[in-house]
Amino acid sequence: MADAALRLTRLAEELLSTPLPVRIRAWDGSEAGPPGAPVLAIRDRKALRRLLWKPGELGLARAWVAGEIDVDGDLYEALDLLAELIWERDGDVKDAVHPVRDPRLRAAARELLKLGGPLPPPPPPPEELRRHTGRLHTKRRDKESISHHYDVGNDFYSLVLGPSMVYSCAYFPDPDATLEDAQRDKLDLIARKLDLKEGQRLLDVGCGWGSMAIHAARHYGVHVTGVTISSEQAAFARKRIAEEGLTDRIEIRVQDYRDVHDGPYDAISSIGMAEHVGAVQYGEYAADLYALLRPGGRLLNHQIARRPLADEEAYHVDSFIDSYVFPDGELAPVGRTVALLEEAGFEVRDLESIREHYALTLRHWVARLEKNWEAALKTVTPGRARVWRLYMAASALSFEHNKIGVNQVLAVRPVASGASGMPLRSRVWGG
């Protein structure tokens, strides 16, 4: 077989009814497709067997994680060109292997069987979270899901995130700013929105590696309680805090937010954490944070949002993200988030979309991972590193194309008189 690339190109174009936008290089050394286009390298024909059994995104993702497919050239350009194949076409085993209704699919399945070799497909790569056990968003299951993502290893995250160790959208003063400056500006923006004052109590929900806690204690003199259910994050944060000499102002707990009962707090920050809460739990999340705030206290909820659907019941979690990146993670439209916060009693006072900033942030992270690739492979498996590279690059494009967004929602627990304590021109944010 020395014409696999040509046969795959013809097969894809027949199914898509359009020319294939990328060039294919097959395991037999053959190439086909538009000259000068990004190259989709199919290094092992086992990738085709995966697609037969899991058409669409999950099959492609498994082949990518296993190193059976790769991109030569600009990854962003290739993902842009292949977006329809990766994100918008899906299927199941029955439709692919037994396509009884469509003669084209029958012919395609036969051709893929010839090219891909004997079934069954290879087992999923080990980086996949294989088991979702128990009821959705229980404390135990949430801890397992968070551990899958955040307990990858602090050394790996240090290579990707840089010295700031902030794993959420930065806030760039201009496109050429450094990632470190933009992350510092994001933390300071949140502190100013919360109107932090010396001696106040701040609860940082999902505190990560302690960056917000350190910034707030060092620059605003507040006392911070940070909670996370990642043991590795907590250990790293405590070490940083000790090195900064801030142990008298910051406490880091390995604790679920549902188990925090030592309010009231003057302010609460929740940065990139609420995506893990889930639709079935979000009302309780909002009510818990409301109960932990003093009257007049402020909440800053920094959260990724998806676009609303005509039929919200049709929403399903992205199969690649759920299997490999954020198990049980869910995105909600920002309007739903605002409604649930207000149902809990909050008054929402400001909403700022910073979607373009997350695209820039992710491109910085991808660049750092690619630059430190060999070092990263000493901290995690190749499959895990490949997951993060694909996930972050694809996410950058999703933000750039307005498929998803990210918002900072500032809310207040009103006092009995109805006063909010907000300045007349709140967008000044002090400082």
Automatic annotation (TrEMBL):
Polyketide synthase-like methyltransferase domain boundaries: 156-414
Annotated coiled-coil segments of the chain: none
Family per record: Belongs to the CFA/CMAS family.
Region (Disordered): 114-144
An annotated Gene Ontology molecular function: methyltransferase activity
Protein name: Cyclopropane-fatty-acyl-phospholipid synthase
Regions crossing the membrane: none
Gene3D superfamilies: Vaccinia Virus protein VP39 (3.40.50.150)
UniProt KW Metal-binding keyword: no
Native source species: Streptomyces finlayi
Listed GO biological process terms: lipid biosynthetic process; methylation
InterPro entries: CFA/CMAS (IPR050723), CMAS (IPR003333), MeTfrase_dom (IPR020803), SAM-dependent_MTases_sf (IPR029063)
Keyword Secreted part of the UniProt annotation: no
Keywords: Lipid metabolism, Methyltransferase, S-adenosyl-L-methionine, Transferase
